[in-house]
């Protein structure tokens, strides 16, 4: 994050295959083509980050973020390219670092890794792993990933894979080191881990944003106790913007309710009252006019002090034209206003 860009805004997707407006499942090839266009438009419009998440289910198009990000790298020039997330528990850190270092070379230093444990467990049987060792796999493999990031010659031993003795992991990235963020869904132990390791932290805001403030405080306290400077905090949120608040909500509600029914069934049926509550000024959902989105980002920044906002776009089979327009408005009407307001606040 440069001094010219004190607050970063970007977009991300899991490539979900929710049924489209005609009730047909979106084909994986269509969804992948769509999201590469999202990356191009976001880059051209001036957004800072494009992210793709990893799932191993039939209702998602992306199982390998690094493959999709490599395609995006060839079609973009400035935007940073990140996984959101890489399911490190069921991945080989050697392979992950090699892939993202290659992406970094291809993109001229724009790659990042966001490591997480993942919200689903399908990858464990796929890769022959024991689900009861879920936490052990993540801790062990994060340790190895960071060792590879920091050393060209790696000597490491853990409990979930073969040891390395003076191993070289190539290529090295274009950047001095690959940025590694840690994604957290609200588990205190994960927040503490990020602070102790000095890693930048993503919070997935799926409830009231204000309830995540104690996690930021815990993160900062854990970093200080470990003798580290607290790193950056980013937040991710579901998102849709139109010129008018009512237009945004009328358009988005049926798509978003379908998305929630498919991907968050424990939340129950999302009726209009629930949707409006989530989209309220202090709710978790960013759906409204550009002015409303600006106000909400600024309020959330006051509460959490984050310096990166990632908007999850294209949810629930939303049309391509509507998604692209939402991305453009985020870049042209939301981002400049947020930066201007925060710059003015610093001067004051």
From TrEMBL:
Domain (Luciferase-like) ranges: 9-298
Task: Write down the Gene3D superfamilies for this protein, in alphabetical order.
Answer: Luciferase-like domain (3.20.20.30)
SUPFAM superfamilies in alphabetical order: Bacterial luciferase-like
Q: This protein's superkingdom?
A: Bacteria
Which InterPro entries does the record match to this protein? Bact_Lucif_Oxidored, Luciferase-like_dom, Luciferase-like_sf
Keyword annotations:
Monooxygenase, Oxidoreductase
Protein name (database record): LLM class flavin-dependent oxidoreductase
């Amino acid at each position: 994050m440069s001094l010219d860009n004190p607050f970063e805004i970007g977009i991300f997707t899991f490539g979900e295959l929710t049924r489209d407006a005609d009730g047909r499942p979106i084909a994986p090839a269509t969804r992948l083509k769509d999201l590469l266009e999202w990356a191009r438009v976001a880059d051209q419009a001036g957004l800072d980050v494009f992210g793709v998440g990893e799932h191993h289910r039939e209702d998602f198009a992306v199982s390998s973020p690094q493959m999709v990000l490599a395609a995006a790298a060839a079609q973009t020039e400035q935007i940073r390219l990140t996984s959101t997330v890489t399911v490190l528990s069921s991945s080989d850190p050697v392979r992950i670092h090699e892939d993202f270092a290659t992406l970094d070379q291809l993109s001229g230093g724009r790659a990042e890794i966001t490591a997480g444990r993942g919200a689903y467990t399908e990858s464990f049987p796929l890769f022959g792993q024991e689900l009861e060792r879920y936490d052990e796999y993540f801790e062990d493999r994060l340790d190895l990933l960071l060792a590879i990031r920091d050393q060209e010659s790696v000597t490491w031993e853990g409990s979930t894979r073969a040891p390395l003795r003076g191993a070289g992991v190539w290529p090295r990235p274009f950047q001095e080191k690959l940025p590694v963020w840690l994604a957290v869904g609200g588990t205190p132990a994960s927040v503490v881990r990020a602070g102790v390791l000095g890693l930048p932290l993503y919070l997935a805001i799926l409830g009231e944003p204000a309830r995540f403030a104690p996690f930021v405080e815990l993160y900062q306290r854990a970093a200080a106790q470990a003798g580290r400077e607290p790193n950056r905090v980013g937040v991710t949120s579901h998102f849709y913007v139109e010129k008018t608040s009512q237009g945004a909500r009328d358009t988005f509600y049926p798509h978003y309710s379908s998305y929630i029914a498919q991907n968050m069934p424990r939340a129950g049926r999302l009726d209009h009252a629930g949707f409006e509550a989530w989209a309220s000024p202090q709710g978790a959902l960013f759906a409204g006019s550009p002015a409303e989105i600006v106000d909400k980002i600024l309020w959330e920044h006051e509460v959490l002090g984050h310096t990166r906002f990632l908007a999850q776009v294209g949810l629930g089979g939303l049309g391509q034209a509507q998604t692209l327009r939402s991305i453009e408005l985020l870049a042209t009407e939301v981002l400049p206003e947020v930066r201007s307001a925060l710059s003015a606040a610093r001067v004051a």
